[in-house]
Recover the amino acids of this structure.
């Protein structure tokens, strides 16, 4: 098995990916010409973390046809069968004022990218899910995993990983009832390269907004994409099990919940949508 210190050698970009990236051109921003592609890897986040700790400049992208140790939040497995999805991570070194909004911006960017590539509108569910509909039976299409650290100079870095179920084959049988794929939702083949390129271009644009201080616009656009999930009941644990209704996100990306004991601001942790 591949270790963090010795990933396999990168391979040439798949044809459909290379063509889509070339067409996107300058819209890729800081990610242009910084993409490393692997046939199979443990976890794209792990490889980019190693690069971050070595001082690599932001904008590097690691993507793979398959992961054999892909994961989501709280160490949960992320199924990554060969060629069936998009498995990628990028390295960002955001300004301090934007650090907590990176996941929010990434969610908006993936929704932008999928819509541009396929016409499909995805809905955001705090903090890191993109779903095919916003109701209680919402089917997960994509997830985001942000992991961070600090450089010796004290500046923070973020490894932002994202997985998108593109083909129906990306769904293990045991998660088929609560997850879906772009192909399944659209009922037609999907160009994986185009989805990847448009998501990277959208991520570059949304990250640029954070860098330029346009955080209010990013949060406002997140609210628009989350309109069908806000207003739903949720439960969480802050030492005891609690329930309330998710009503908004604040300017820092925290979830605002209305409960019997008053308004609660959830900064991090697991929230279960009911």
């Amino acid at each position: 098995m591949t270790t963090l210190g010795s990933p396999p050698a990168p391979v040439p970009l798949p044809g459909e990916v290379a063509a889509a990236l070339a067409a996107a051109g300058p819209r890729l921003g800081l990610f242009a010409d910084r993409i490393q592609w692997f046939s199979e890897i443990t976890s794209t986040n792990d490889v980019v973390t190693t690069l971050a700790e070595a001082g690599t400049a932001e904008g590097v992208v690691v993507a793979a046809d398959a992961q054999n140790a892909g994961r989501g939040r709280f160490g949960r497995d992320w199924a990554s069968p060969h060629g069936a999805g998009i498995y990628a991570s990028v390295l960002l070194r955001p300004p301090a004022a934007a650090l907590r909004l990176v996941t929010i911006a990434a969610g908006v960017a993936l929704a932008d990218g999928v819509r541009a590539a396929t016409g499909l509108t995805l809905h955001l569910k705090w903090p890191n899910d993109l779903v095919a509909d916003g109701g209680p039976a919402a089917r997960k299409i994509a997830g985001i995993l942000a992991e961070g650290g600090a450089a010796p100079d004290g500046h923070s870095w973020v490894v932002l990983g994202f997985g998108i179920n593109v083909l129906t084959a990306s769904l293990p049988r045991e998660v088929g009832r609560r997850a879906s794929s772009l192909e399944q939702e659209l009922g037609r083949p999907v160009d994986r390269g185009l989805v990847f390129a448009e998501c990277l271009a959208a991520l570059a644009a949304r990250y640029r907004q954070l860098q330029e201080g346009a955080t209010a616009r990013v949060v406002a656009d997140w609210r628009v994409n989350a309109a069908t999930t806000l207003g739903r009941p949720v439960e969480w644990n802050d030492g005891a099990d609690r329930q309330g209704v998710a009503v908004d996100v604040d300017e820092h990306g925290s979830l605002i919940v209305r409960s019997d004991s008053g308004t609660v601001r959830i900064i991090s942790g697991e929230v279960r949508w009911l």
In short: The mean pLDDT is 88.
